[in-house]
Amino acid sequence: DGGITQSPKYLFRKEGQNVTLSCEQNLNHDAMYWYRQDPGQGLRLIYYSQIVNDFQKGDIAEGYSVSREKKESFPLTVTSAQKNPTAFYLCASSTSLSGTGDYGYTFGSGTRLTVV
Amino acid sequence: AQRVTQPEKLLSVFKGAPVELKCNYSYSGSPELFWYVQYSRQRLQLLLRHISRESIKGFTADLNKGETSFHLKKPFAQEEDSAMYYCALRPGGYQKVTFGTGTKLQVIP
């Protein structure tokens, strides 16, 4: 069954700790993305990656880091520098082509991170 | 930079009434527009894209370049349409998509 798997579903972090959110896809998609979803603010792009070993900052990258060592995996680390990390995090993927066959993004089920 | 505006945070309609979810965008080129939907306890998923010009679950959306709008419409609302709807824009040739802030559609029985 193809798709994107995000884990864990719920994550609690103490102040000053780094945490890593997992995102794995078996869709053979080249591009992967991390979004943050806050009430009333929609989806805001944190980081994205078009190919392995390459990634770009999105609109709100401060306090976050990513890696793309494998096509299937795009983990997101929320560092202690992120001042307001409590949020719902969504991972997505898409084909790299912009023409026929591109059906938009496929999203994971999300990880809810809470700082305690 | 591109921008997507969804002016309504919440839209409440009665079952059987017409629905129009508004989406306006700003972008100087020819963008690709999408509508995504998130039902309760389900993943965010693509509803429709303007290029395909299709009707999904009775919803349609027409790209109006003159008014820079991509409103989502359905003639008769159903209870199962209650969900969060996001309009999204992708500049031609690039993958980075910009999402609007979303509109919650509530269909009243």
Principal-axis shape of chain B: globular
Helix content of chain A: under 10%
**Residues in helix, % of chain B:** under 10%
Low-confidence stretches of chain A: 97-101
Tally of helical segments of chain A: 0
Helices and strands of chain A, in order, run as EEEEEEEEEEE
Strand percentage of chain A lies at over 45%
Low-confidence stretches of chain B: none
Order of helices and strands of chain B: EEEEEEEEEEE
Oligomer: heterodimer
Question: What count of helical segments of chain B does DSSP give?
Answer: 0
Supply the helix-strand structural class of chain A: mainly beta
User: Measured on Cα atoms, how large is the radius of gyration of chain B?
Assistant: 13 Å
Span of the ends, CA to CA of chain A: 35 Å
The gross shape of chain A turns out to be: globular
What is the CA–CA distance across the termini of chain B? 41 Å
Largest interface (C-beta under 8 Å) = A-B, 22 and 24 residues
Explain this structure.
- The complex is a heterodimer of chains A (116) and B (109).
- Chain A is mostly beta strands.
- Chain A contains no helices and eleven strands.
- In chain A, the strands form two sheets. In chain A, strands 2, 4, 5, 6, 9, 10 and 11 form a seven-stranded mixed sheet that branches.
- Chain A is globular, with a radius of gyration of 14 Å.
- Chain B is mainly β and 109 residues long.
- In chain B, strands 2, 5, 6, 9, 10 and 11 form a six-stranded mixed sheet that branches.
- The model of chain B has no long low-confidence stretch (mean pLDDT 91).
- Classes of the chains: A mainly beta (116), B mainly beta (109).
- Chains A and B meet through β5 of A and β5, β6, β9 and β10 of B.
List descriptors:
heterodimer; A: 116 residues; mainly beta; seven-stranded mixed β-sheet; four-stranded antiparallel β-sheet; 11 strands; globular; B: 109 residues; six-stranded mixed β-sheet; three-stranded antiparallel β-sheet
